[in-house]
């Protein structure tokens, strides 16, 4: 099956909005073995959109559109897809109720423009939008399929996951050649270091192996092609085993696993609690620990001790330690971790103090220098890190290094 | 002048690489008043690339390609552009010397594949590549122009800045019609509500007006077209004035301004300090306040009181208040704000407590219910909010609502 993605929206052609939706969809389709031959982006112009839709339906079996489902007059996509399929637009009562309920919940009347969003091509399957008011739709006619999705990624992605993915999976069938993808996630090693260790493995064709640099992690993407899924999975298992044998505990997870998810699960399973004392990360570590629902089972809270006065008054760090060694020191990281452990009664406590930059670095304490403290029932330890990159990267690397330390402590690696 | 960007590279169609180059180029062309009508992405397939190039040259005056200039067999772009223009490929001696020098510097011989990179369409102007081995090229023939650029953004961008920008500026001329763009940023109003208030203004052609929904903000994009920049700016100023007259303090900033940047500047100018006490946001408010360098001038820190025990022990919230009214209540928000204000000595203090979801909601306290407390030298106030959306949205909306309250307090709106 050959697919084409048509994104509409003038904002995409003014250099303001990056087309992440096409990127997301293309990744999903690829993993199902659906070949994406074209991405086309057009502005909110009816002639050009119609032309792009017609061309796509001529050369591709599957057309996926994003954007142009809003309530305003320049939101045209749904009606134009209906037009090129020769379908009339009809009011979908369920969608209208959903849109009305959306506004009722917000205690406001439905603006007139939003009624338009409940119109869909006749005989289309409706894709509910759990987050916004714009429903999507799937049309199948004359051997062609069109999937109509909203533009904003936070609306489009849940719709794709919940409703489009199962339809496509069914459509692709069980015996087509699939691409089975596995992503191994690595913390604490750079691209060239990984390439040096894995060099020969990376030359093998099936599964193919590619390195993707993320801001604070490296991902290894393995793609196995096979018509039999069991065979593909066997290839992936073998490759994963080979990689883990060489990289050891640097591999912290795979696929949808996240560092904070793994740490949270490990804490929950052991019935342990954790608290945080943050300086350079300014709350990001707590924000990360509370990202997933249910985090109150293990995370108690903590102190953001950005100013030295807060380190003293709320964590009991001694003024003379701050004065003699500076806030960015192993001793202060240790005192912060102990201070928050004692004051919250948590079993474990993490502390971060460092120079996030871009200013504030010196010869002895350059930008990117970070101390992390980990207090456990057995005592408190500190580690020194030297990170590189801009402020955002240093802060995110600090958060991830702190979590990785807890992961290794709990899994005893 | 109408332009089209054709990006080539299979990696763009596997969901591995995000097409940031098209985004960058389109922004640059727009600011010169060159209308970009299409982005097209195709894989490394000669027939499809040739087809995309021919279509682009038919419907556009300016074709910009990115990608496919490398040394490998699937790097085809330059030869195919030459083909559609009916030009032969010739060896450019200067480029060959540059490529040889590149490898000599790295103390290695030039691989055979790289010689290919020195071939360019006959009579093309060469665009040197200061970072890599692939030169770009500009072709002008029969009233059409093609600009051939490499794919990797770190190679493409310096070439664009140094060599392409002056050529286009010259071509566009000083009296051509330019597009001037302004973005107004709104918090606390949805897409349809804004449209209802601005309805008639949105119909005007110059500047054109479009709404863009972000996760926790709405943006209004104004595009003014005029041959004289002063005239365009006047149009934008007038439209901004009209919008502000109707939306008032809901407009919190414009263009590159951010909510936290505006709040930070306002605090700094007034020599005020702020502290935070966070429950449902778990540290994200502190993380946001410390996002920009120099935030230690106004942010002291605070307490992440995720567990009730931390609300009691570190902030002095009374156990009986928590027991009788629950952690998500105006009284607790008030006590948290006062508690952190007293304990840190900050002039201002913000507190957040709410139900981020997806679980934990009840009839009386549904998911999305949030109380924010603001302690100032004049006293402490609380506000109740009902947000909608997934956990991530509720948390981000809470952070932004808290900052927006401080903004309005400081600017006395």
Helix and strand layout, with pairings?
The structure is a homodimer of 413-residue chains.
Chain A (H helix, E strand, L loop, with lengths): L1 E7 L11 H12 L3 E8 L3 H14 L2 E5 L10 H9 L3 E3 L1 H13 L13 E3 L3 E3 L8 E6 L2 E6 L3 H20 L5 E9 L4 H12 L5 E6 L4 E9 L2 H19 L3 E4 L4 H11 L4 E5 L5 H6 L9 E7 L2 H8 L3 H7 L4 H15 L3 E7 L14 E8 L2 E8 L4 H20 L3
Parallel strand pairs in A: 1-2, 1-3, 3-8, 13-14, 13-15
Antiparallel strand pairs in A: 4-5, 6-7, 7-8, 9-11, 9-12, 10-11, 15-16, 16-17
Helix pairs in contact in A: 1-5, 2-3, 6-7, 8-13
Structural commentary:
2 copies of one chain form a homodimer. The first copy, chain A, is α/β, with parallel strands linked by helices. Chain A has 3 domains: 171 residues, MoaB/Mog-like domain (Molybdenum Cofactor Biosythetic Enzyme, Chain A, 3-Layer(aba) Sandwich); 77 residues, Alpha-Beta Plaits (2-Layer Sandwich), CATH 3.30.70; 152 residues, CinA-like (Maf protein), CATH 3.90.950.20. Chain A is 40% helix and 25% strand. Chain A has 13 helices and 17 strands. In chain A, the strands form 4 sheets. In chain A, strands 2-1-3-8-7-6 form a 6-stranded mixed β-sheet, with helices on both faces. In chain A, strand 1, helix 1 and strand 2 form a beta-alpha-beta unit. In chain A, helix 8 runs parallel beside helix 13. The longest helix of chain A has 20 residues. The mean pLDDT of chain A is 92.
State the gist of this model.
The structure is a homodimer of 413-residue chains. Chain A has 13 helices and 17 strands.
């Amino acid at each position: 099956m050959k697919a084409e993605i048509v994104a509409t929206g003038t904002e995409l052609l003014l250099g303001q909005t990056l087309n992440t939706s096409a990127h997301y969809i293309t990744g999903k389709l690829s993993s199902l073995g659906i070949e994406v031959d074209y991405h086309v982006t057009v502005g909110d112009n009816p002639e050009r959109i119609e032309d792009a839709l017609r061309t796509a339906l001529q050369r591709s079996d599957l057309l996926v559109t994003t954007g142009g489902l809003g309530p305003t007059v320049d939101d045209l996509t749904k009606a134009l897809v209906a037009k090129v399929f020769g379908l009339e637009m009809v009011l979908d009562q369920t969608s209208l109720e959903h849109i009305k309920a959306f506004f009722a919940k917000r205690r406001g009347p439905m603006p007139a423009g939003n009624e338009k969003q409940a119109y869909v091509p006749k005989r289309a399957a409706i894709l509910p939008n759990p987050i916004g008011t714009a429903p999507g739709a799937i049309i199948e006619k004359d051997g062609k399929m069109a999937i109509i999705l909203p533009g904003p990624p936070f609306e489009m992605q849940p719709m794709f996951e919940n409703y489009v993915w199962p339809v496509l999976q069914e459509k692709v069938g069980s015996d087509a050649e699939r691409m089975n993808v596995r992503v191994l996630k690595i913390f604490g090693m750079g691209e060239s270091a990984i390439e040096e260790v894995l060099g020969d493995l990376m030359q093998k064709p099936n599964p193919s192996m590619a390195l993707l640099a993320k801001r604070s992690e490296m991902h290894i993407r393995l793609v196995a092609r096979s018509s039999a899924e069991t065979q593909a999975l066997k290839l992936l298992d073998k490759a994963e085993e080979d990689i883990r044998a060489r990289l050891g505990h640097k591999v912290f997870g795979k696929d949808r696993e996240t560092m904070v998810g793994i740490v949270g699960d490990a804490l929950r399973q052991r019935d342990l609690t954790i608290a945080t004392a943050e300086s350079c990360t300014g709350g990001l570590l707590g924000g990360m620990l509370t990202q997933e629902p249910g985090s109150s089972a293990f995370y108690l809270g903590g102190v953001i001790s950005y100013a030295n006065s807060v380190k003293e008054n709320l964590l009991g760090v001694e003024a003379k330690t701050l004065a003699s060694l500076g806030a960015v020191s192993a001793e202060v990281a240790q005192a912060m971790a102990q201070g928050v452990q004692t004051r919250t009664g948590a079993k474990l406590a993490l502390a971060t103090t460092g120079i996030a930059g871009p200013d504030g670095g010196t010869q002895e304490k350059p930008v990117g220098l970070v101390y992390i403290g980990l207090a456990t029932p057995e005592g408190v330890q500190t580690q020194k890190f030297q990170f590189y990159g801009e402020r955002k990267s240093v802060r995110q690397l600090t958060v991830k290094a702190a979590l990785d330390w807890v992961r290794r402590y709990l899994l005893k690696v």
